[in-house]
Amino acid sequence: MPVISRLVSIVFRVAEIVCAAVVAGIIGHYLAQYSGHGWPEARWIYTEVVAGLSLLLGLIWLIPFSSGFFSWAFDLIISLAWFAAFGILVNAIHRLNCGSIWHWGGLTHNNSCSRWKAAEAFSFISAIVWLASALVGIWFTFRVKKDSAPPTYGRRRWGRRSAV
């Protein structure tokens, strides 16, 4: 079973890296073109930092060691950060009159709405993949603890009364 969980983990890590690279590229393009000051730039910088951290951690944890499964707490934190970045992008897209936030059709068009929706879609997908990676890590961690626990052989635990 560890081989299957390792393969699933590698697939998740590659998906995390791809999603982070797409979001970093799109938001980085907008940051390079932005000339104003204020709040929207801070939102984009946050999203860019989350994408950069995701790229770095995804590449580090892609190296096949079993200790990568024990990083599930960090996977959960990065997932929550991606959900926050998704919320930031959803809040920013309301000003563009691009339609519903869940209508991701037409992502291949080369216009502002399609690029924003692509960044929004990949940030949501990244959040889900990081969450799934955390769940695989939790499953692996507690499965390993259960399998490595010493057998009790019917001994009584402290504090329990004997029936005799």
How would you summarize this macromolecular structure in one to three sentences?
The chain has 164 residues and is mainly α. Helix content is 70%, strand content 0%.
Structural description of this entry:
With 164 residues, the chain is mainly α. It has one domain (2-146). Helices cover 70% and strands 0% of the residues. It is built from four helices and no strands. It is elongated.
How would you describe this structure in keywords?
Marvel, membrane, 164 residues, transmembrane helix, transmembrane, Integral membrane protein, 4 helices, mainly alpha
Structural topology:
Layout: H1 2-33, H2 39-61, H3 72-93, H4 112-148
Please state roughly what percent of the residues sit in beta strands, choosing from under 5%, 5-15%, 15-25%, 25-35%, 35-45% or over 45%. Answer: under 5%
The total of beta strands comes to: 0
Helical element count? 4
The proportion of residues forming helix, as a percent range, comes to: 55-70%
Count of domains: 1
Oligomeric description of these chains: single chain
Helices and strands, in N-to-C order?
Answer: HHHH
Q: Average pLDDT across residues?
A: 80
The secondary-structure class comes to mainly alpha
Alpha-carbon distance between the two ends: 42 Å
General form? elongated
pLDDT < 50 stretches: none
| Biggest beta sheet attributes | none
Rg value: 21 Å
Subcellular location: Membrane
Organism: Aspergillus heteromorphus CBS 117.55
Protein name: Integral membrane protein
Keywords: Membrane, Transmembrane, Transmembrane helix
